[in-house]
Design a protein that fits this description.
heterodimer; A: six-stranded parallel β-sheet; three-stranded mixed β-sheet; 11 strands; globular; B: alpha/beta; 2 domains; five-stranded mixed β-sheet; three-stranded parallel β-sheet; 9 helices; 8 strands
C-alpha cells in the first residue's frame, strides 16, 4: 500500500458518502472456517459516528467513480469534470481486512459507478466478494450494489457471497427518472430486484429440504431514492415504498435528501437547502408502516399529499382522529398502544408486560422512562386524563408548540 | 451485622448465603471500601464457592435466568452501594418468585434493571468503538469503561478474531484479557504505558482517519448528535479522534 491508496480512498469514499444504507444487521454468522476472520452480528453494530452524526458501520466506497452515464443529479456523471479513480479488487479486499482487524468497521459496502459496461463492473464487484470470502476467509458483513443492466447470472453469483444486495430505484416515479437519468431504464432496475427476491425465496424453500443450502443474500435486499430533486409528493414516495415492501420483500427503503451540488435546468437551484426535515418525516412514516401497523393511506388526507413538517406523522394522525382517543393505558390492546404519539415499541411492550401484575399508575409510566411529553394528551391512566388542556386538536398543537419554545430557551439558558 | 466481602461475585453470593443461614445482613460492603461505623458490627466473609453456587442455583431455580443475569450485570456496574441493592432485590425476589421481573417499576427491581441496562449498553457500545492496533501481529486494544465490562466484551472478539492473538487492556482497573489459540484469560495488576506503532500501523490509522473525516457530509454537520453517540470520555482511545 502506498501514497496513491490515500488518494483513491479520498476520491472514492467521498463519492460514496451520499449512499444512505449503513445497516449491518439481520445476519447471524459464527466464524467457523479454519484460519478465517470475522462474523456477523444480527443486532448490527455501529463503529463510529462522523461529524454529521451519521453512523459508520461499514467501509462504504465505490469501486470506481468513472462513469459512462450522464445522470444530471450525480457528481460522477460523465460530463462532469471531476477527479477519477479506480480501486483494484485486491486493494478493496486488503483495505477491508485491515480495517476490520482493527475493529473500525463491521464489513464492506461496495458500490460503483458504471465503468465500461454494467457487466464489466458487476464482474469486478464479484471479484472483490470472491477474494474476501475465499482468499481471506472473511465472514463479516458485505453489502454490494447491483449494477442495473448486468447479466442476471452475475447477480446470482454475487448474491451467493453477499449478505445484502441493493438496486437503487433512484427516483420515486418513472417520469422523474426520465427527466434526470434518461439513460437508466426502469425495467433494468426492477428486473434485478425480482431476480434477487426470487433467489431469496428459492433458497429459503430449499433450506426446508436440504439443511445445508447456502442462503442467498441472507440480509435481504434494500433500495434507496433521492428526495426533493423532483416535485413528487410524500404520498407518491411512501406509496412506492409500500409497493416495494410488498412486491419484492424489501428489507429497507432508504431516502436521501437531495443536496444540490450541480446546477442544471432540471434541478432545484444550487442555493436550495437539502430537505433534511422532510427526509426525517419520511423515515418516521416508513417506520410507522413497518413496525406500527399503519397503512400509507392513513397518513394523508384527501387534500394533503405531503407530511406535516411541524409535527411527526403519528402526532398528525392522532390529531386528525381524536375520536379514537384518549386510550386507557391499562386496557388498550398492544396495537392501539402503538398508535399513541410519543410511545414506542419498547414502551408499549413494557406496559403490556407490567400491567399483568397490577394496574399501572402515571408515576410508574414515568419510572419506565416512557416519554409522556406528547403521549399525555392522548391517554388516560386509571381513568384520569393528564393532558390538562381542552381535548381539541388546535389547542393541543398550540400547547406542544409552546413547550417546544420553552425547551429551546432552557437549552440556551444552560449554555 | 455488616458483611464484608472481597469484591468478587462469588464473595457477594457467599454473603447472601450467610444472610439467610446465619444472621440477617444489615449491609454488604467490599472490604477495601468499607468504613467502620459505631452502629453496626461487621464480619469479614471468606468467599466460599460451594455456598455461592447454592445461592446462584436457587436464583436460577426460584426466580429466573433474567434475574440472575441482571444481578450479575448490576454487580459489574459502577452503581454505588450496588451490593445492598442486590441484597434488597433478592429478599424481594425470593418472595415473589418467577413473576418478579414483571415488577419493572418496583423500588426493589428498578435500580437493578437500570444498572443492568447501563452495563448492557456500555458493552454494546464497546463492541463498536473498541479500537485495536497491530503490534507485531498481536492486536492490542486499550479502554477505560465506566462499568467493569472487560469480561463481557472478550467473547465477542474471541469469536470474531478467532485465529488472531489479541490483548484488551482496561486501563482504569489495570487488568487485561489475553487471547491466543482459542482460549483467553484475565490478568490483574498489569500496567501498560505507551505503545510504539510500526510504519504500516501508522499508515492504516492514517487511512482510517482520512476515511472518517471524508465520510462526513458537511452540509449536515451535527456535532451535538456526534457527542451523544461518542461521549468525550471515550474518545482518547479512538484513533480517529486522536
Amino acid at each position: 500500500m502506498n501514497e496513491s491508496l490515500f488518494n483513491k480512498l479520498r476520491i472514492l469514499s467521498d463519492a460514496a458518502k451520499y449512499d444512505v444504507s449503513c445497516v449491518s444487521s439481520g445476519v447471524e454468522r459464527k466464524n467457523k472456517t479454519v484460519g478465517g476472520i470475522g462474523n456477523a452480528s444480527s443486532a448490527g453494530i455501529c463503529h463510529a459516528w462522523s461529524s454529521d452524526g451519521r453512523c459508520i458501520s461499514l467501509l462504504k466506497i465505490l469501486l470506481t467513480n468513472d462513469c459512462i452515464y450522464d445522470c444530471s443529479y450525480c457528481l460522477n456523471r460523465v460530463t462532469n469534470n471531476t477527479e477519477r479513480a479506480t480501486f483494484t479488487p485486491e486493494e478493496v479486499a486488503e483495505l477491508t481486512i485491515q480495517f476490520y482487524r482493527r475493529n473500525y468497521i463491521e464489513g464492506l459496502f461496495l458500490s460503483s459507478a458504471v465503468e465500461k459496461s454494467p457487466d464489466h463492473t458487476m464482474e469486478n464487484i464479484y471479484k472483490v466478494l470472491e477474494l474476501l470470502r475465499y482468499k481471506y476467509n472473511f465472514w463479516g458483513y458485505v453489502h454490494v450494489k447491483v449494477i442495473p443492466g448486468a447479466d442476471p447470472m452475475l447477480v446470482q453469483k454475487a448474491g451467493m457471497l453477499a449478505d445484502r444486495m441493493s438496486v437503487n430505484i433512484e427516483l420515486p416515479t418513472e417520469k422523474s427518472l426520465r427527466a434526470l437519468a434518461p439513460q437508466k431504464k426502469i425495467e433494468n432496475i426492477i428486473k434485478p430486484m425480482s431476480v434477487i427476491n426470487n433467489e431469496i425465496t428459492r433458497t429459503i424453500e430449499d433450506e426446508k429440504f436440504f439443511r445445508s443450502t447456502p442462503r442467498f443474500v441472507p440480509g435481504g435486499q434494500s433500495t434507496q431514492m433521492i428526495i426533493g430533486a423532483t416535485p413528487d409528493s410524500d404520498k407518491t414516495i411512501l406509496g412506492l415504498s409500500q409497493n416495494l415492501y410488498d412486491r419484492f420483500n424489501m428489507k429497507r427503503v432508504f431516502f436521501s435528501a437531495y443536496i444540490p451540488v450541480i446546477s442544471s435546468p432540471n434541478l432545484p437551484a444550487i442555493s436550495t437547502m437539502p430537505p433534511l426535515l422532510r427526509e426525517h418525516r419520511l423515515y418516521q412514516a416508513d417506520w410507522l408502516m413497518r413496525f406500527y401497523y399503519f397503512n400509507c393511506e392513513e397518513l394523508f388526507t384527501e387534500t394533503d399529499q405531503n407530511l406535516d413538517l411541524d409535527f411527526d406523522p403519528k402526532m398528525m394522525y392522532a390529531l386528525r382522529n381524536l375520536n379514537r382517543f384518549p386510550l386507557e393505558i391499562n386496557k388498550a390492546p398492544y396495537e392501539e398502544l402503538l398508535r399513541i404519539p410519543g410511545l414506542g415499541v419498547k414502551s408499549a411492550q413494557k406496559i403490556v408486560r407490567e400491567r399483568k401484575n397490577a394496574q399501572l399508575s402515571y408515576d410508574s409510566l414515568k419510572k419506565m422512562r416512557t416519554v409522556l411529553k406528547r403521549a399525555k394528551y392522548f391517554i388516560t391512566v386509571k381513568g384520569k386524563y393528564y393532558g390538562n388542556v381542552k381535548f381539541d386538536p388546535e389547542i393541543i398543537k398550540t400547547e406542544l408548540r409552546r413547550m417546544e419554545v420553552q425547551q429551546q430557551l432552557s437549552i440556551y439558558d444552560l449554555i | 451485622m455488616d458483611y464484608l466481602y472481597d469484591g468478587t461475585f462469588e464473595g457477594l453470593l457467599t454473603c447472601i448465603y450467610y444472610h439467610y443461614k446465619n444472621e440477617a445482613a444489615s449491609g454488604i460492603y467490599e472490604i477495601s471500601k468499607y468504613q467502620h461505623s459505631m452502629l453496626n458490627e461487621s464480619e469479614v466473609i471468606e468467599t466460599d464457592i460451594l455456598k455461592a453456587s447454592i445461592v446462584s442455583e436457587s436464583i436460577l431455580k426460584k426466580i429466573s435466568r433474567e434475574a440472575y443475569v441482571d444481578i450479575y450485570y448490576c454487580y459489574l456496574s459502577f452503581l454505588e452501594n450496588k451490593e445492598n441493592y442486590i441484597l434488597d432485590f433478592l429478599v424481594f425476589a425470593f418472595k415473589y418468585g418467577k413473576n418478579t421481573m414483571n415488577f419493572y417499576t418496583h423500588d426493589k427491581v428498578l435500580p437493578i434493571k437500570e444498572a443492568s441496562l447501563k452495563v448492557t449498553r456500555e458493552v454494546h457500545r464497546f463492541l463498536g468503538i473498541l479500537r485495536f492496533s497491530d503490534i507485531d501481529g498481536i492486536l492490542f486494544a486499550k479502554f477505560s469503561p465506566d462499568n467493569d465490562v472487560l469480561l463481557l466484551v472478550v467473547d465477542h472478539f474471541a469469536d470474531r478474531y478467532r485465529f488472531e492473538k489479541f490483548l484488551i487492556y482496561d486501563e482504569k482497573r489495570k487488568k487485561a484479557a489475553i487471547y491466543a489459540d482459542e482460549t483467553w484469560e484475565i490478568k490483574e495488576n498489569i500496567n501498560i504505558e505507551s505503545i510504539e506503532y510500526s510504519e504500516d500501523e501508522a499508515m492504516i490509522q492514517g487511512l482510517w482517519k482520512q476515511y472518517f473525516t471524508d465520510m462526513a457530509i458537511k452540509e449536515r454537520k451535527n456535532f451535538n448528535l456526534q457527542f451523544q453517540f461518542v461521549p468525550a470520555r471515550y474518545r482518547k482511545n479512538m484513533s480517529e479522534f486522536k
